[in-house]
């Protein structure tokens, strides 16, 4: 049995990894429809987001082009959650792990007291991230780290930069196509990066690192334990998580130790996880493979304050 969520996302992932030429054709077709040209000199490298903030992208790279086609809204679920959470929660810190081009971190205007941290391992994206930062109204509050976030400091890791689709660069697996650059990086925990005292602070975070989420979150335990409250949004891809060697039930048990978990179900509605076993998720989605998003909250009142409808 499959669902529209598992089927749709599986199809897209297979397209990206197994049929890069077909995917590139579709992207180019979208660019042609929107801009009436494929001349790279006539295709813009900046997007005006709904917030009026500017997002810079590489207009020659497929994910950059996808952002151009969609006006910077390829992850509407995440963007809507993030903008709403910043406005309502008014967090002391925000942490975006897996910035990519920055459609999340640069999507909104932040309160003047908020410290904003972005973490991106792919050095090829830094020029665009830096330009977007300089154009952002809160630029003095934003710090960008070009680091590989993990659960331990100082380990040598292989990071695979996907030159076909930057959004699938990862340490958890190697894409099926051959447009990959392998680089060696040193790992570091988010706890080591965030030096400030977070006692009595509220933190909003997002982690989207293609299956490596468990390692990143384990490297944030100090923040979980010391802060007043935390609200997070993470990608959950069971296939990618399993490729890292992490047991999904172990990962779910780790999350429930710190958070109440909310899941976007097959109808794109939010459900509070009453159980932490992977089998329960498989039954919910009617699929062995699950690709969705989770909301993590240390305090259920955070969810109530956002006005989210939870089934």
Describe this structure in words.
It is a single chain. The chain has twelve helices and 13 strands. It is α/β, with parallel strands linked by helices and 311 residues long. α2 runs parallel beside α3. Mean pLDDT is 88; it is low at 1-11. This is FkbM family methyltransferase. One of its GO terms (biological process) is methylation. Keywords: Methyltransferase, Transferase.
Write the layout of secondary structure elements.
Blueprint: H1 4-18, H2 20-35, E1 46-48, E2 54-56, H3 62-69, H4 76-89, E3 93-97, E4 115-119, H5 126-134, E5 142-145, E6 148-149, E7 156-162, E8 180-188, H6 190-193, E9 202-207, H7 213-218, H8 221-226, E10 229-237, H9 238-243, H10 248-258, E11 260-264, E12 270-272, H11 278-285, E13 291-297, H12 300-306
Which class do the helix and strand fractions yield? alpha/beta
**What's the arrangement of strands in the largest beta sheet?**
5-4-3-9-10-13-11-12
**Can you give the helix content as a percent range?**
25-40%
The tally of domains stands at 1
| Beta-strand proportion | 15-25%
Biggest sheet layout: 8 strands, mixed
Q: What is the count of DSSP helices, taking H or I runs of 4+ residues?
A: 12
Residue windows where pLDDT falls under 50 for at least 5 positions: 1-11
Shape: globular
Instruction: Kindly report how far apart the N and C termini lie.
Output: 23 Å
Structure, briefly:
This protein has 311 residues and is an alpha/beta fold. It contains 12 helices and 13 strands. Helix 5 links the parallel strand 4 and strand 5.
Features:
311 residues, alpha/beta, Rossmann fold, three-stranded mixed beta sheet, globular, FkbM_mtfrase, FkbM_Methyltransferase, SAM-dependent_MTases_sf
């Amino acid at each position: 049995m499959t669902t529209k969520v598992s089927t749709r996302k599986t199809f897209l992932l297979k397209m990206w990894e197994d049929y890069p030429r077909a995917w590139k054709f579709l992207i180019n077709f979208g660019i042609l429809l929107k801009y009436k040209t494929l001349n790279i000199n006539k295709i813009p490298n900046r997007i005006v987001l709904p917030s009026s903030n500017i997002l810079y992208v590489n207009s020659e790279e497929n994910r950059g082009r996808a952002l151009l086609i969609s006006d910077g809204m390829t992850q509407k679920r995440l963007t809507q959650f993030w903008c709403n959470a910043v406005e309502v929660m008014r967090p002391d810190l925000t942490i975006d792990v897996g910035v990519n081009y920055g459609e999340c971190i640069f999507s909104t205007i932040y309160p003047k007291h908020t410290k904003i941290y972005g973490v991106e391992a792919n050095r090829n994206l830094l020029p665009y991230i830096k330009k977007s930062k300089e154009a952002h109204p809160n630029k003095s509050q934003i710090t960008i780290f070009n680091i590989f976030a993990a659960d331990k400091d100082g380990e040598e890791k292989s990071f695979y930069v996907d030159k076909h689709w930057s959004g699938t660069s990862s340490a958890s697996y190697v894409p099926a196509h051959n447009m990959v650059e392998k680089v060696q990086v040193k790992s570091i925990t988010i706890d080591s990066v965030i030096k400030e005292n977070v006692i009595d602070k509220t933190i909003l975070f997002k982690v989207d690192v293609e299956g490596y989420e468990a390692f990143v979150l384990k490297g944030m335990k100090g923040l979980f334990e010391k802060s007043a409250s935390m609200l997070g949004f993470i990608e959950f891809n069971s296939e990618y998580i399993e490729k890292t060697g992490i047991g999904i039930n172990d990962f779910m048990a780790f999350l429930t130790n710190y958070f109440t978990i909310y899941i976007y179900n097959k109808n794109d509605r939010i459900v509070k996880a009453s159980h932490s076993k992977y089998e329960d998720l498989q039954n919910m989605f009617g699929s062995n493979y699950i690709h969705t998003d989770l909301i993590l909250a240390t305090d259920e009142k955070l969810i109530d304050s956002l006005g989210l409808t939870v089934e």
